[in-house]
């Protein structure tokens, strides 16, 4: 049996009363807050690894004298590729060894990536370090939700997941600001020193406060066969495969935006130290749309909400690309670009969770393995698509707007094709 939250009565879920003399257990609300904070700290590694380096991309490009200014984008894509691989590895590893050993393994891999990137003497070594960072941080995010699933269920899990998701959005807002501050106080290598310290402090906290949530009797032997079987099932299920394609397309546009954000906000608009504020403000738009989606999806349905998001990308991206190119020579006023981008990121909030929900519906008891396969396919595919789209950056925002339009069309086409084959009946 999975142990309940400390300080909680097993049968009622109410705060436990001390049976006799001894230390008084902390209130249930305090225990819950500490647990959510600890899970958020694990996910923070993932958020900071992805977004904290954005303000430093220009400095990194200058330091390594990159001939192609778009090559700096690979600092982001390399992390995404590492995250993709982690989706396949961390589930079986944590199911076999337990959550704590898997968490410390992820932190160790991430720390090694920080060291390698921080001491890199060439750009290729830096990218290798970023792959390791993605491999470690992506696994930690998956583990945080696995630990949450071990400890709570039902409405409490939904509530805790929502709190962690809100925390993740806040961290996306904070991470570039922290990166900008580090750049101002040191140089780009300081970014990886910060991330190394952050991972070390997180490891100390987990070592002190995180119990093992997967008892030995519930662990499974480490095996590759279940993952291979899940891949076959996903490939043979039109609804899931269509959603995987749509997710890869949408994540590709999101990764393109993240990778080109420094070139857009600094290179085009010259925001400098204000760049993280603009980036973070747009993340808040995504958070607001996610809240709206949580209220509307029960009434409208996940598939219809995803279609709305994709249609919004097709029309919004197409109109924006045309207006930006014909009316502003590819460089619209900052307020207009921000307005369009806020709408696009809001549509992403309607896409990601809903496409995942529709994709997982047919998976039944294979949901865990299938979820890992789906995450690998969408993240790796998205990173590779983003690399192609980002290479088209030409000093204007037209390629970014066009990438959103194309991604929306690809995703909409995949869903429509699957629906005509009766996949969503």
From TrEMBL:
Q: How does it sit in the membrane?
A: Multi-pass membrane protein
Alphabetically, the GO molecular function entries are:
transmembrane transporter activity
Cellular component GO terms held in the UniProt record: endomembrane system; plasma membrane
* Residue intervals passing through the bilayer: 33-54, 74-90, 102-121, 160-185, 191-210, 231-258, 264-285, 306-328, 334-352, 373-393, 399-418
Compartments (UniProt record): Endomembrane system
Q: What is its main location?
A: membrane
Q: Which residues form the Major facilitator superfamily (MFS) profile domain?
A: 35-425
Using the record for this protein, list the coiled-coil segments as residue ranges, or answer none: none
For this protein, the record's Pfam families field holds: MFS_1
Please give the name of this protein.
Answer: MFS-type drug efflux transporter P55
Write down the species: Albimonas donghaensis
Traced from the root, the source organism's taxonomic lineage reads: Bacteria, Pseudomonadati, Pseudomonadota, Alphaproteobacteria, Rhodobacterales
């Amino acid at each position: 049996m999975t142990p309940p939250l400390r300080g909680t009565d097993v049968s009622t879920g109410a705060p436990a009363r001390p049976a006799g003399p001894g230390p008084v257990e902390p209130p249930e609300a305090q225990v819950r807050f500490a647990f959510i904070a600890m899970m958020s700290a694990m996910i923070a590694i993932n958020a900071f690894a992805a977004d904290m380096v954005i303000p430093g991309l220009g400095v990194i490009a200058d330091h390594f004298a990159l001939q192609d200014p778009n090559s700096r984008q690979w600092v982001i894509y390399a992390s995404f590729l590492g995250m993709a691989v982690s989706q396949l590895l961390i589930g079986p590893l944590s199911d076999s060894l337990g959550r704590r050993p898997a968490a410390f393994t992820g932190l160790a891999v991430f720390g090694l990536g920080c060291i390698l990137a921080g001491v890199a003497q060439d750009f290729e070594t830096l990218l290798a370090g970023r792959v390791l960072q993605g491999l470690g941080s992506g696994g930690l995010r998956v583990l945080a939700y696995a630990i949450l699933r071990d400890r709570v269920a039902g409405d409490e899990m939904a509530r805790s997941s929502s709190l962690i998701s809100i925390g993740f959005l806040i961290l996306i807002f904070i991470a570039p600001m922290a990166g900008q501050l580090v750049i101002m106080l040191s140089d780009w290598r300081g970014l990886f020193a910060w991330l190394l310290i952050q991972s070390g402090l997180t490891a100390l906290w987990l070592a002190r406060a995180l119990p093992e949530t997967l008892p030995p009797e519930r662990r499974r032997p480490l095996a590759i066969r279940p993952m291979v079987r899940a891949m076959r099932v996903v490939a043979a299920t039109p609804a899931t495969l269509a959603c995987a394609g749509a997710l890869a397309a949408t994540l590709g546009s999101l990764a393109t935006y993240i990778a080109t954000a420094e070139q857009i906000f600094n290179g085009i608009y010259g925001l400098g130290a204000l760049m993280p504020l603009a980036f973070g403000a747009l993340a808040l738009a995504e958070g607001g749309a996610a809240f709206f989606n949580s209220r509307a999806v029960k009434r409208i349905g996940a598939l219809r909400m995803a279609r709305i998001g994709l249609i919004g990308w097709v029309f919004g991206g197409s109109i924006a690309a045309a207006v930006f190119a014909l009316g502003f020579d590819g460089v619209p006023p900052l307020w207009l670009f921000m307005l369009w981008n806020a709408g696009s990121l809001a549509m992403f909030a309607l896409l990601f969770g809903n496409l995942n929900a529709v994709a997982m519906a047919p998976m039944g008891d294979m949901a865990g393995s299938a979820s890992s396969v789906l995450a690998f396919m969408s993240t790796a595919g998205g990173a590779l698509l983003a690399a192609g789209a980002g290479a088209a950056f030409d000093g204007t925002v037209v390629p970014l707007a066009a990438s959103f339009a194309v991604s929306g069309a690809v995703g909409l086409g995949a869903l429509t094709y699957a629906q005509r084959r009766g996949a969503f009946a």
